[in-house]
Amino acid sequence: MLDHAPRPTRRLFRGHVANNHRPRTLRHAHIVGWGMEVPSQVLSNHDLAAIVDTNDEWIVTRTGICERRIAEPGETTTSLAVRAAQKALDVADILPSELDLIVVATSTPEHSFPSTASLIQDLLGAGNAGAYDLSAACTGFVYALDMAASKIQTGSINTALVIGAETMSRVMDWSDRGTCILFGDGAGAVVLQGSDTPGGVLNTVLRSDGSGWDMLTLPTISSRDTYLRDGEHQMHRIYMDGKGVYRFATRVIGDSIKQAMTEIDLTPDRINLVIPHQANQRIMDFAAKSLKIPEERIYSNIERYGNTSAASIPIALAEAANSDRIRPGDILALVGFGGGLSWGATIIEWTAVPTKPSRSITWGRRKGEYAIAGLRRPVIRWWRRLMLLSPTTWIIGARRYLVHRRDQLRAQLPAVNVSVPAIVKDRDSKDRDSKDRDSKDTDTNRKDKPNE
Ligand code: COA
User: Fold this and answer.
1) CA 318–ligand 1 middle distance (angstroms)
2) What three-state secondary structure class fits 41?
3) 307 belongs to the catalytic site
């Protein structure tokens, strides 16, 4: 029986039933692995100046961005996410088959369905994991982390992979200098694991205000509310009210962290590192002022990657962890905000001791599981096709063919009927001739025998 399977209930007295098992104590969800992946293609501000009417100085002073990464034609949200996930699994040194859940925060999936998470589950060979995508725009990673951590804390799962991945370049209006200068592509991932040791994800605050839906929007199929640009309805392109979003972001970035800290009786000065959504350097500087902490405690890599939406927080987290900006015992505040409008903050007590991924036995088994996943995919797909040739399918197919042939023959019957009267007529005339002959013979006989 599974550890968390429901136990039988005990009847206390008539009409009163109580659960027989002890209340489960909450577990702790720790980040044990992290990884990031960005495309190698760099688009600098100078490159952008050749596309739209802008310049490096304007972009740097207003946003802090110098360059961003753009996916090559063959790269997708899934392919970036898989590479980030593999790095996170390497750091955690666990097998894909040990994952119970994969949650992917993305606004740029390849399909409405299947989910990007399902594609990643297959590519990793995570055969024991459930998988789903989560849509909360740039706040997506904070939401996804909370979903996975909550499942671990309640004991329903033990290990989860949480990914933020985007190919924002595919939904950019490259003629809109107000937005195309901001965004870039990339993916980041963390592995969360349950433990009885205190620490890990301590508290999360999630919020939404849908009344501001049109301030940052990406109209897609079946949307009534496409926006007009140069007289054309825009689909699959981002629209942003930059000033409105800026005001909203500066309001919520500090407040949500303060609220998440207050709920667990901590004050902002206890924070060692804030890892904010990388939207604009000025918004991040504002967070430092609002929290009254030094700017060095706000992690920023916006200069190199721009705004990678749901991927920006896990990319920054992975970079910070890899560059020893985070130490065991540190209190981190992750804060996201964006389309929805949505926002949220998570407080984490960092417990992982960063070690360089080693070529352990698990490393070999992991590579083996990736290889098996690669082989399994075509084999399963071919097997499904072969299943069409199963005996049942044969019988059904044969029956269908026979019914079809019968119907065809029935359809030809009128032509057969046409020839029937001719044959019948022919046969009748032959019969008549022979009868005539017979009667003539009889008459002749009668004539020959007049006395009979
Ligand atoms: N290059 C040069 N000039 C530009 C420009 C660009 N890329 N984009 C806009 N401008 C011009 C405008 O046309 C305007 O000119 P005008 O005064 O002659 O009309 C001027 O610069 C100021 O534009 P404005 O939109 O007021 O700039 P801003 O200071 O508000 O900065 C953003 C624009 C988009 C950088 C800023 O509003 C912002 O970062 N907002 C938040 C966006 C965000 O975080 N989005 C993601 C959330 S998840």
Assistant:
1) 29
2) coil
3) yes
Q: What stretches of 65-211 show up as alpha helix (H) in DSSP?
A: 77-92, 116-124, 140-153
Q: Phi then psi for 158, rounded to 5 degrees?
A: -115, -35
CA–CA dist 388, 395 (Å, integer): 11
- Which domains, and CATH codes, for the chain? 28-378 (3.40.47.10)
Catalytic residue among 138, 158, 203, 280, which?
138
User: Residue 341: is the preceding peptide bond cis (ω within 30°)?
Assistant: yes
CA–CA separation, 260 and 100 (whole Å): 27
- Ligand 1 centroid, distance to 59 Cα (angstroms): 9
* pLDDT score of 387: 73
Residues 6 or more apart from 46 whose CB is under 8 A from it? Answer: 56
The verdict on whether 138 is a catalytic residue reads: yes
CB atoms under 10 Å from CB of 192, counted, come to 29
Of 144, 159, 43, 54, nearest to 100 by C-alpha is 159
Q: Report strand pairing: 216-217 vs 239-240.
A: antiparallel
In this structure, the residues whose C-beta lies within 6 A of any atom of ligand 1 are 54, 58, 62-63, 138, 177-178, 181-182, 216, 240, 242-243, 245-246, 249, 279-280, 307, 338
Ligand 1: atom nearest CA of 177 is 7
Q: Calculate how far, in angstroms, residue 131's C-alpha sits from the geometric centre of ligand 1.
A: 38
Q: What is the pLDDT of residues 387-411, one digit of tens each?
A: 777 777 778 888 999 999 998 888 8
The mean pLDDT values, 10 residues at a time, for the chain of 452 residues are 38 39 72 97 96 95 97 96 97 95 97 96 96 97 98 96 97 92 97 95 97 89 63 74 94 96 94 97 95 96 98 98 93 96 97 73 92 91 77 82 89 56 53 60 50 40
28 flagged as catalytic = no
Locate the ligand 1 atom nearest the alpha carbon of residue 307 and give its number: 46
Q: Which residues does residue 205 pair with via DSSP β-bridges, in sequence order?
A: 345
The single residue of 30, 158, 203, 277 carrying the catalytic annotation is 277
Among 168, 136, 177, 212, which Cα is nearest to 68's? 168
Count Cβ atoms within 10 A of the Cβ of residue 200 and give its class: 0-12 exposed, 13-18 middle, 19 or more buried: buried
